[in-house]
Write a structure and sequence with these properties.
mainly alpha; Butyryl-CoA Dehydrogenase, subunit A, domain 3; 8 helices; globular
């Protein structure tokens, strides 16, 4: 679907970008990005709608100076940041749609959820600048140049934030790893 959108854009120019095509191609990216930036399932669904309202309003002004995903990621960051400023963050347990899928085994599913919970907890401890760079580079696999564009900082600053974020995450998981090794040896 995404490849078809880019072929359409290349063949006919940016004017061919319709909101419907962008929505179909980018909805999973927007939801995943918001989840990776710390929104829970329910919040990510609501915020996805807000992001697409902004995209709908501003799509005609998209000039193509960056990748579409980079532009949309910037909208995700600003929408989430605005939402956090407006609202007191309330954690509500919500059913995760992925949890309703059948897993190969209950144990594997519990391990997967535990790892995901620990990763999200560790990402929550990073400041917003480091988290944004880490998520874009490591999870969304954008180039560092695209990351710097999306977060609006110089390239070397983006590298510094990535390095610092990695160090903080490593420190978060390091004691756990050492304890696990000690338990295994005993």
């Amino acid at each position: 679907m995404l490849a078809a959108l880019f072929i359409l854009v290349l063949a006919t120019g940016l004017a061919a970008l319709s909101f419907e095509d962008v929505f179909r191609a980018q909805a999973p990216f927007v939801y995943r990005t918001l989840r990776n930036l710390g929104a829970n399932t329910t919040e990510a669904e609501d915020l996805s709608q807000e992001v697409f309202v902004v995209i709908h309003r501003k799509l005609s002004g998209f000039e193509g100076r960056s990748k579409l995903e980079t532009w949309i990621y910037g909208i995700c960051i600003r929408t989430l940041s605005d939402w956090r400023r407006r609202a007191v963050r309330r954690e509500q347990p919500a059913a995760d749609p992925a949890a309703t899928l059948s897993a190969p085994s209950l144990e594997e599913e519990l391990v997967r959820r535990d790892r995901l919970t620990r990763l999200r907890g560790a990402l929550d401890r990073l400041d917003e600048d480091k988290r944004n760079v880490f998520v874009l580079f490591e999870l969304e696999q954008l180039s560092m140049k695209e990351v710097a564009q999306a977060v609006g900082c110089p390239l070397q600053t983006a590298y510094a934030r990535l390095y610092a974020g990695r160090r903080e995450l490593q420190a978060h998981f390091q004691p756990e790893t050492k304890e696990a090794r000690d338990e295994h040896r005993a």
